[in-house]
Amino acid sequence: MILDILPGSKIYENDKISILAGCPPEIIKFVINKKLKFPEFIILPDSLFKGDVIQCATEFPLYYHLFVLGKFFQGKKLNIIGTKSTVDNNRELLRLTLLGPTKEEYREIGDSSYYEELYNESRYLSVKDKEGKELQIDDFVNFIAFDRNIVEIEGTVIKHIDKNVYEINGEILDINCNEPQYPPYDIKFDFVPMAPHKFGLDILGGGSGFTPTKPCSGVLLNYNSEYMLIDCLPYLDYHLRARGLSRSQVRSIYLTHIHDDHCNIFPLVKFSHKMTFLGTKEIYWMALKKLSLQTGHNFEEFYSYFDFIELTPYKENYFYGINIIPHYTVHSIPTIGATFKMRDKNKIDSIVFVGDNKSIPNIKKMVDLGVTKEDKYRYLWNIYRDKSNLLLADGGMGILHGNPEDSLESKSDKVVFLHLEKLPEKFDATFSMAEAGKRYIAIDSKNDAYTIKAQEIFHNSFPDISSEWINALMSNMNLSLYNSGDVVLKQGEKRKGNIYIILSGVCAVVYHDGKNLKEIAIKETGNFIGEMAIVKRTKIRSASVVAKTPVILGVIDEEVYYMFLKSENKVKDMVKIWEMRHDLEKIEPFSLYSDLVNDKIAAHSKLKKVKAGDVIIKEGEDNGELYIIMDGLFEVILDGKIIKIISKGNLFGEFGYFESKKKSPAIKAQTDGSILEISSANIQQILFNTPSFNFLMNQIIKERKEELFQS
Q: How far is residue 4 CA from its own chain's centroid?
C-alpha cells in the first residue's frame, strides 16, 4: 500500500515493513497528524530540494525514532537509504547536528578561547552506552547505499528505477511532483497591514520540532523599521506572508544554532538579495556546512551567498542603531543567544533571546563537575533575573532544554517561552507562550518609516536619482492600505492617475482570458505597480493586481513619475527593461524572481533571434557569455553527439564563466528561436548581489558535470 503524505513524500507499507520516500522538514508532524506509524526506513530522494524546501531533513525523524518512540532503548536503529553520495552526506550532516564539531573541525574554524568548553559540553551531553562510552552516529543509524540501483532489506527489494522513482515489491513509488510543499499545520494569516516597530518582536513560531499543530521556533526582530530573523523555521515564505511580509523586507539573520527546528536557512540562498549573517564564526561555519551537505553543493560556494559579520561574545557589537551582545548557552552543540539593545529618549530598551539552554540547576551540576565554567553559569543565571523589556526563553524542559522555573525571579516586563506545546498550568498567570502572530513592542514606530522605505526603493531602482527628484516624489506620495485579498488594480479599467510602490507585503498580477484566471507574476516589497501604463501611455489596465498579503502601498501621481523619467532620459530604457522583464516573467525560474533581479538581467542583456542550424557556441570555444533561451529548441553537442535538448527557460554558456578549464559542449539551434545574451562582466555583477541567480548557475554547473560524466 502506498500512502500520500504531501507532494514529494510518500510511504510504502505492508504487514512487515514501512518505508518513507522523501523527507522534507517537519515530516514527522505530517505523520503524527495523519495518525500513521512512523517508518523505520527512509529513502533520500535524488532531488535534494524542491523549490526552497530541503528534501533530506532526517534530523528530527532520527530523534523521534530513537527517543520519542523509544527505539534506541530497544536497540533498533533508523535506516537511511539512498545513493552513495547522498547517504555519505547525510551521515556527516547527522553527525554534525547530533554531536557537534570535532576537534579537527574546531581547528579548521579558527582560534577561540570558548571552543574547548563547547567541545567538552557536547561530549558530556552526548548519548552514552552502558559503559559510559560516547555513541557515534553509526550507532544510531544504518546508512544503506544502493548497489547497482538495488537494496534488499528484511526480504524486501527496493529498486531505484529512475530519478525519484522506486519499485518496491512490484509497486511503483514515484515522488516527482511540481506542486509546492506546505506546512503540516494551519497558519492563521493576518488580513490587516501592520507597521513595523522601531524596536520589537514578531513571533513566527514558538513550538518545537515535535509539536504537530504548531510551527517551530522563529521570530522577527524589528529594528528601525527593518526586520532581522532570529533563527529560521521551515517553510519561511508561508510564515512571512502570514504576517503580511515579503522576503525582500528581511535583510539579516541572527542564527543561534543549526538544529533543524531553528536552522532551515536554505530559502535564504534563494533570496533576490544577499542576507547579512550575524553571529559567531563557528555557528556560521556549521550553518554553511549544513547547507553544503543538504544540497550536495561545494562548501566554499556558500560563502558567496551571505555577508558575514562576526560578533564578539559578551561584548557590545554595534549594528545600525542596535547593540547586540551575544552569549553562549549550554546545549548539545554550540549555541548562542543574545541581548539586543536600543537607545530611545535617554533610556536603553532591551530584548533578550536566551537561546536553547539547559535548566539553570542542571548547568550548576555541570559547573560542579568541571565541564562548564562558573562565569558562563553566572552570566546565564543573571540573564534570567535581570530587567529587560522582553525575555524570550527556552521552556522546553527535558534533558537539553530550560525550565520556566528558571525565570520565576525575572525582573523583565514580559517573559515569553519558546519550545512549548503548552505552558504548565502553574505558570499560566505568570508567563506567556510564544505563538505565531503575537507582537511585542519595546519602542513604537514613527510615522516616517514608509517615506524612508520609499526613498530606499527609488535609490535601488534608480541609483543616480537626484535629491531634488527624491524630494519631489516623496512630497507627492500618500499611503494606501489593503487587506489580504483586496483588488488593487482591475483589468480593463481606465488608469486613475497613479503609480504604486509596494512598501510592505506581496501582490499577485492576474489575468482573465474570458474563461480562466491566471496568476502571471508576483510583486513584492520594493516593486512598482502600474508604472508601465503611464510610460507606454496605455489607457486601459491589461491585468489585475490583487493583494496576496496585507499590503501597504505608496501612491504617487503618475504624471509626476513620468516627468521624472522623461527629465532623466529613462523612458526608452524603462520600456526596454519592462518588455524584457515581461518576457522573463513568463518562464521559470525567472517568474519566481523579484522585479529587481529580472530588471538587472534585462538591463544587461541583448535579445538575439536565431535560425535553425545556427551554432551559438562551438565545442570547446565558450566565450564567457551567458545565454537564456526565450524561445526555441537547442542541441547540446559533445564529441559530435547530441547529449541533450534544451528549451525555453534553460541557460547555457555557463562553462565559459564558471569552468574555464573544462571542455564546453557546442550549442546549436534545432529550431528558429530567440535568446538573451549577457556578457561575462555583467554576469559577475548580477551573481555577486543575487544569491538566487548565483545558486541557479551553480546548480546548472553541477547538473551539467553529471550529464557530461554520464555521456
A: 25
Architecture of the domain whose range is 605-710: Sandwich (2.60)
Domains 199-443 and 449-587 fall in the same CATH topology: no
Contacts of 53 (CB under 8 A, 6+ apart): 24, 25, 181, 234, 235, 266, 267
Q: Is 319 helix (H, G, I), strand (E, B) or coil?
A: strand
pLDDT number for residue 657: 46
- What letter would DSSP give residue 304? G
Domain 199-443 has CATH 3.30.300.20: no
Q: Residue 96: pLDDT above 90?
A: yes
Q: What is the mean pLDDT of residues 80-109?
A: 97
What are the residues whose beta carbons fall under 8 Å from the beta carbon of 687, sequence distance 6 or more?
304, 693, 694, 697
Q: Which of 248-262, 291-305, 545-559, 655-669 has the lowest mean pLDDT?
A: 655-669
Count the Cβ atoms, other than its own, within 10 Å of residue 365: 12
pLDDT at 382: 96
pLDDT tens per residue, range 554-585: 999 999 999 999 999 988 888 888 888 888 88
Q: 449-587 — its CATH code?
A: 2.60.120.10
Is pLDDT of 663 > 90? no
DSSP tag of 485: T
Residue type, 521: A
What's the pLDDT score for residue 661?
47
Question: Which grid coordinates are listed for 650?
Answer: 534553460
Hey, is 509 helix, strand or coil? strand
Cβ-Cβ contacts under 8 Å for 99 (sequence gap 6 or more): 122, 126, 134, 136, 137, 332, 333
CB 160 within 8 A of CB 214: no
Domain boundaries, the chain: 2-174, 199-443, 449-587, 605-710
Among 518, 516, 454, CA closest to 480: 454
pTM over 0.70: yes
Q: In a 10 Å sphere around its CB, with 0-12 CB exposed, 13-18 middle and 19+ buried, how is residue 579 labelled?
A: middle
